[in-house]
Design a protein that fits this description.
The chain has 8 helices and 16 strands. The protein is α+β, with helices and mostly antiparallel strands. The chain is globular and about 60 Å long.
Amino acid sequence: MATARAPRRFCRCACFCTENLYVARYRLHVRFQGEQQLLRDYGRILRSRGCVSPKDFQELLGELEQEVERRQRLGQESAARKALISSSYHPARPDLYNTLQDEALAPEFLAAAEYSSSPGADLEGLLQRLETVSGEKRIYRLPVFTAPFCRALLEELEHFEQSDMPKGRPNTMNNYGVLLHELGLDEPLVTPLRERFLQPLMALLYPDCGGGWLDSHRAFVVKYALGQDRELGCHYDNAELTLNVALGKTFTGGALYFGGLFQAPSALARPLEVEHVVGQGILHRGGQLHGARPLGTGERWNLVIWLRASAVRNRLCPMCCRKPDLVDDDEGFGDGFTREEPTAVDVCMLT
């Protein structure tokens, strides 16, 4: 009798609680291990950005200590929210919780994915089926979802937003939006999108960044509106690759801007601005520095999928740039690390 295969266990790197803590008012990511280390490593730049009085510094310490505590509780609290939503939430669009159908996807996206999966497919052929935003930065764009699907997903997201269900922050920089695994849309929507469509595309576009080895993801929707989050500071993603799809609604401003890879000197010397187009997705490397300009009017909702390859990140954590110090995580995909031996795959190079 065959034995069922145990599900893969994913982990986090211990640096999650100490590295890349974002301080919005000073527009700065910091490493935090205590007061003296913070003052030694960031005192000068903090003073240059307005943290000048003892009161300012004590308020900053309090914020960082709260953020560390929040991150330490994150897995447990996320699991509790997911369980409550699963048992008590009544969707406006229950059809979205069925397995992703081709009818939800733009014809251009289907054609590009079908080509990428065909025998003899190569990068040159794929580039004829999508828009190259920047060959130098390896940023691409193509339609992903149909307009009716974008409207349906927005209807569901707004219904959830207005409900009394608990809501987690999408990430450490955005305050408004939805974590798709908590809402229950990971398995029916994001996993088949990654496995059936994005994997073959990314394998051709980014073979050196784990594009052919994608085995987990983190997906969330972010919302920008007047009186809420309006812009996003410069950062890089905890991912090998990223898909960012504009879902709507009607808005002005809020363009993405891209620099170089975060490891490179003067990575933001000549940023490239890219306007959002509803239904279209922007593909880029996770290590590409980027941010969002201030929203002018309206509301902007974007689906962001961080695509991860344990074959790459098991060698080097992209957030602390060290061999990962693994911590077991019982919640979903963790941060995409596994305890398996790294696979022989070429890693993303500075280009």
